[in-house]
């Protein structure tokens, strides 16, 4: 398949709309074609710029407070007591429903935003000519490299005898929080492992467990004050196996 045929799928790949088979095939092509990899990297950067610009127009707490007050404003004096008695419970139900829907919608949007940014970081690493800053399969070389570069320490598993190989790592940022981005390989496919401090904010409110987001399988959990994310276009079983090794190392 020539590059022209692959280029028709780049937009779908970046947006996570390809099926697993096509995503795997295109991921393999990106590791072999610098032209397509550069295009994907540019699209990922553009996508993240648009996401950051969109956050500028998120309604402020003050604006939401004004809207809530206008909805709950007292009925005019000329309204009869009969209608007041009927209106109050109805308004309460409406307000409660709006509040629940707003909260659920915001939580889902926040979760998807974080997962989307992680997927973008993973795709950027695959498309980059230098996906890691410390290149080594030795955990005793990779782990010390992060000292002084991020405000926490972590443990890495011994993978000798398994299908997984550590390729290296780099410093990354999520929601303006510094963390470690490690890359592992299994059967010629790359898996990204992200580690951040699990402090108050966007990351602390995320749930734990397996997720399928944007054509990638993802696993997330907290341990020893750290938040882990394992992301890749491999099977959920591979994600679970690597996640279990990381949990045991921690």
Low-confidence stretches are: 99-105
Which sequence of SSEs, written as H and E, runs from N to C?
HHHHHEHEEEEEEH
Provide mean pLDDT, rounded.
Answer: 77
The number of helices is: 7
Proportion in β-strands: 15-25%
- Cα(first) to Cα(last) distance is 43 Å
**How large is the radius of gyration?**
23 Å
Give the overall form. Answer: globular
Count of DSSP E strands? 7
The major beta sheet can be summarized as: 7 strands, antiparallel
Instruction: State the helical fraction.
Output: 40-55%
Placed side by side, the strands forming the largest sheet appear as 1-2-3-4-7-6-5
Structural category: alpha+beta
Describe the structure.
- The chain has 250 residues and is α+β, with helices and mostly antiparallel strands.
- 50% of the residues lie in helices and 21% in strands.
- It has 7 helices and 7 strands, in the order αααααβαββββββα.
- It has helices spanning 3-14, 20-32, 34-55, 61-71, 81-127, 139-145, 236-249; strands spanning 134-135, 164-174, 177-186, 189-197, 209-213, 216-223, 226-232.
- The protein is globular and about 80 Å long.
Itemize the secondary structure elements and their pairings.
Layout: H1 3-14, H2 20-32, H3 34-55, H4 61-71, H5 81-127, E1 134-135, H6 139-145, E2 164-174, E3 177-186, E4 189-197, E5 209-213, E6 216-223, E7 226-232, H7 236-249
Antiparallel strand pairs: 1-2, 2-3, 3-4, 4-7, 5-6, 6-7
């Amino acid at each position: 398949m020539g590059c022209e045929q692959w280029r028709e799928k780049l937009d779908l790949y970046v947006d996570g709309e390809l099926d697993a088979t096509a995503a795997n095939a295109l991921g393999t092509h990106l590791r072999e074609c610098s032209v397509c990899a550069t295009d994907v990297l540019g699209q990922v950067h553009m996508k993240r710029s648009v996401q950051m610009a969109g956050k500028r127009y998120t309604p402020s707490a003050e604006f939401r407070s004004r809207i809530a007050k206008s909805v709950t404003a007292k009925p005019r004096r000329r309204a009869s007591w009969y209608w007041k008695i009927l209106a109050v419970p109805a308004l309460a139900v409406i307000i409660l429903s709006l509040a629940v829907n707003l909260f659920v919608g915001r939580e889902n949007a926040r979760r998807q935003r974080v997962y989307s940014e992680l997927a973008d970081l993973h795709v950027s690493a695959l498309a980059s000519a230098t996906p890691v800053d410390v290149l080594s399969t030795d955990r005793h070389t990779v782990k010390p490299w992060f000292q002084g570069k991020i405000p926490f320490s972590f443990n890495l598993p011994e993978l000798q005898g398994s299908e997984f190989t550590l390729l290296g790592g780099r410093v990354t940022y999520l929601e303006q929080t510094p963390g470690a981005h490690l890359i592992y390989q299994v059967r010629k496919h790359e898996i990204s492992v992200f580690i951040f401090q699990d402090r108050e904010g966007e990351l602390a409110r995320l749930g734990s467990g397996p997720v399928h987001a944007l054509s990638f399988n993802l696993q997330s959990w907290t341990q020893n004050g750290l938040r882990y994310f394992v992301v890749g276009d491999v099977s959920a079983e591979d994600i679970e196996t690597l996640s279990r090794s990381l949990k045991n190392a921690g």
